[in-house]
Amino acid sequence: MSGIKVPTSQREEFKKYMEVSGFQEKIIHMLVSLYEEPEKPADPLQYLKSLFEADNLESADIETLKNENTELKNKLGEANEIISELKSKLAELSGEGNENQAEE
Known about the structure:
By secondary structure, the chain is mostly helical. The chain has 2 domains: 34 residues; 62 residues. Helices cover 85% and strands 0% of the residues. The mean pLDDT is 85.
């Protein structure tokens, strides 16, 4: 590795940035995963890239699921409104039917 001299303040600022962004934890998790892999991949860089890609796909899946969840909640709300309306109509009709029976 090269011996680039970076001022301590810049180094600390960068470390904080990596920690706050969550990248530090993510890359550590990926490196641990590579370390624990029983059969080491021939190309470790490609292995890490595939982990990043898998994470991105999961994020896309999560977004899709969130959208679907919102749509289903809306449909459920509409269905509940229809059920309430039908129950009201049923109660009205039941009331009318009871009155007709009482008159006979």
